[in-house]
Structures are given as structure tokens and as C-alpha cells.
Amino acid sequence: MSATVLAARGVEVRFGGVRALRGVDLEVRPGQIVGLIGPNGAGKTTFVDAITGFVPSTGSVQIGGREISHQRPHARVRAGLSRTWQGVELFDDLTVEENLTVASRRLSLRSTVRDLVGRHSGDVSSVRDTLEDVGISELAEAFPPELSEGQRKLVGIARSFAARPKVLCLDEPAAGLDTAESAHLGKQLRRLGDQGTPMLLIDHDISFVFGTCDHVVVLEFGQVIASGEPSVIRSDPRVIAAYLGQEPAGEGDQS
Ligand SMILES: Nc1ncnc2c1ncn2[C@@H]1O[C@H](COP(=O)(O)OP(=O)(O)OP(=O)(O)O)[C@@H](O)[C@H]1O
């Protein structure tokens, strides 16, 4: 069996009478960027909320073979599963570098001890490394109000990436970006992926997902209806049918 960094099996979520997820299986392997797409209400955000511990779920979630489904969100982050949020909240009166330093320090209860003994994840040097890895070193001294939407998204990604996750979940990173910003974001994600950070990427912009991901999983009504390489998924009749009746965002649209 090939190694997986993230293995979710039989993930189920109910909201009262609504079965939002019905036994979803999904894997992310080393070096992969996996896209999760589906029509509105298919369960994409619920899946990310479930595996990261923000909504109660049943089923199995493993990171590097270790079961984390019983753990609280912060413990899952420590196990290597980080996520971004649709909105990027930043402290406007702190620079980008200071925002990342604050976030890194919050990540670990042990940071106080490490403050006493030297280098830790909130060090200026490691924050600078993170900014460089995400391709935004030039923004270190900028304040959030000076940033474009695309730059804010990259800072949000850098903040989650600072934890050096084994898998990074990205919830609609291209939402609100124009075509050029999406293309730049896709390039930076590809670079991070190629450098060894596997990702799970949700987005409404299908061309962005197809252009960025190695593998795509399609949800409809809380179930996986297709899974495979973008070129295969693009022409899958079940996927085309699932999107009938709605505007499949992407192909030039920004939603
Ligand atoms: N907190 C909640 N309480 C009740 N039902 C919910 C809740 N959150 C989501 N749902 C329902 O669960 C289903 C899946 O919703 P979810 O937001 O995960 O879909 P999605 O694929 O992310 O949709 P979108 O593309 O519109 O963001 C939908 O039927 C939705 O109405």
C-alpha cells in the first residue's frame, strides 16, 4: 500500500436531519495537491471542518498513519494538519512579519519555555524563512491595509504554513481574486507542493483547481462521485451532470 499523509475514511457528518457527509473517503499522498470540488452545498467546507475537528464527525482521520479523529483542533494542528480560512483576519497595526510571529507563538503552548532557551517557531528568522517559502519576502514590513486581496491570501497561507504542516488544507484561497492573482497564487501553491508540502484545496474556481492540483475529488450531496486526475475528471459525465443547472464557476469566472 502506498504511503498517505492524510487518509480520511468513512467520514460522516449530520446537522440534525441533514446528512452533510455520507461516508467520504479521501487521501492525500506525499507531494500531492488534491482538489475537492462540487456544487454548492455538496459538503466541501463541512469535510474540511470535520477532518480539522471543527464539526463533530464519525469515521477515521489519519495523519502519517496516526489516528487523530478523537483529537481537538489544536492537537490536530500539532499532529500536522493545518488549515486556512475563507476570510484572512490580520492585525492591521502589525506588520506582516509581526502578524506571523504572533500566530506562530500562539500555536505552541511550549513557546514560553522555548522563549527561555532560544530559537522557536516565532523567531524572526523562521518567520522570514516562511515568507520566503511562500514567495512574499518583500511584504515582511508591509501593514495589512496596504495589501491586495491576493497578497492577504498569501499571508493567510504563510500563517498556516508557519506550523510546517504535514498537510495544508486551503478553504477557497482564490475566492475574491482576479485572474492574474489566481494565476500567481496557483504558481506559489504549486511551488510549495513541489517543495514537499501536500495540500487539500477547495475552490469554486474549477480552472484554478484543475490547473493547480494533481488529483481531484468531486462531492455531490455529501458523497464522492468521482476521483482522479484533472484531465479525467474534466470529462467525467457524472461530474458534468452534477454541475448541470448551475454555473460551474471557473473557466474565466471568479466567484
Ligand atoms: N451549521 C450547519 N447547520 C446545518 N446545516 C449545515 C450547516 N453547515 C452546513 N450545512 C449543510 O450541510 C450541507 C453541506 O454544506 P457545505 O457548506 O459543507 O457545502 P459546500 O460544498 O462547502 O457548499 P458551498 O460551495 O456553497 O460553500 C448543506 O446542505 C448545508 O446546508
From TrEMBL:
<dbReference type="GO" id="GO:0005524">
    <property type="term" value="F:ATP binding"/>
</dbReference>
<protein>
    <submittedName>
        <fullName>ABC transporter ATP-binding protein</fullName>
    </submittedName>
</protein>
<feature type="domain" description="ABC transporter">
    <location>
        <begin position="6"/>
        <end position="246"/>
    </location>
</feature>
<dbReference type="InterPro" id="IPR032823">
    <property type="entry name" value="BCA_ABC_TP_C"/>
</dbReference>
<keyword id="KW-0547">Nucleotide-binding</keyword>
<dbReference type="InterPro" id="IPR051120">
    <property type="entry name" value="ABC_AA/LPS_Transport"/>
</dbReference>
<dbReference type="InterPro" id="IPR003439">
    <property type="entry name" value="ABC_transporter-like_ATP-bd"/>
</dbReference>
<dbReference type="InterPro" id="IPR027417">
    <property type="entry name" value="P-loop_NTPase"/>
</dbReference>
<dbReference type="InterPro" id="IPR003593">
    <property type="entry name" value="AAA+_ATPase"/>
</dbReference>
<dbReference type="Pfam" id="PF12399">
    <property type="entry name" value="BCA_ABC_TP_C"/>
</dbReference>
<keyword id="KW-0813">Transport</keyword>
<dbReference type="Pfam" id="PF00005">
    <property type="entry name" value="ABC_tran"/>
</dbReference>
<keyword id="KW-0067">ATP-binding</keyword>
